[in-house]
């Protein structure tokens, strides 16, 4: 279980995360929603230790995460992998090498740059790409892929870390609805089939309701809602987004039903990601 106790992150006088306490059981898929600046991304960066907390603590299965350093911190970032809105691929490298870079914490930077990966790791990378319907792109340069394809490669790279927790920071914010649905379907399949905990920052209510077991709403750095999708009423949503932000949160829906004909260079989605 991931346990967050009275977590704070201050930037000067700004409380980006303000006294947040949460318990996230293993295998849960959690959507974190709220307006821009609500503290969603900062919360994920604190969990991954890309940012240092001002106060409070983070523990996972009894291990104190918020004080880890050196090799122990690298090991935590492997167990708690993260994907980003911007994909963060190396454009000049081919897809399979980008995926193999997920083994960085196991090899070190030099070995990774020299592509010193075992045959077992290469097979593992092809399997990760195949389950995301991307194996056919293995030898393409990353910058030849569409946005939706690049995000799926980023997910495959994260899986190479063999994580227990997968953090997704606005993974569909820059994607069209069809590609967004493909990415969300992939994250949900990984969560359900492998039992990996997924914590995903999302902009729209409908996407969170369609894909997540639990929804956490944040406003001004604080948790103002924590419950099931069914319990997220209009009044609760209004508290999270405010009256002027609620319409925007409801304006875009990303679900499997939004899949149409392929576009943006993406392949037709499989019935399931297995």
From TrEMBL:
CDD domains: ABC_PhnC_transporter. Residues 252-261 have a biased composition (Low complexity). GO terms for cellular component: membrane. It holds the Pfam family ABC_tran. InterPro entries: AAA+_ATPase, ABC_transporter-like_ATP-bd, ABC_transporter-like_CS, ABC_transpr_PhnC, MetN_ABC_transporter-like, P-loop_NTPase. Residues 252-274 are annotated as: Disordered. Residues 2-245 form the ABC transporter domain. Keywords: ATP-binding, Cell membrane, Membrane, Nucleotide-binding, Translocase, Transport. GO terms for molecular function: ABC-type phosphonate transporter activity; ATP binding; ATP hydrolysis activity. SMART domains: AAA. This is Phosphonate transport system ATP-binding protein. It comes from Thalassobaculum litoreum DSM 18839.
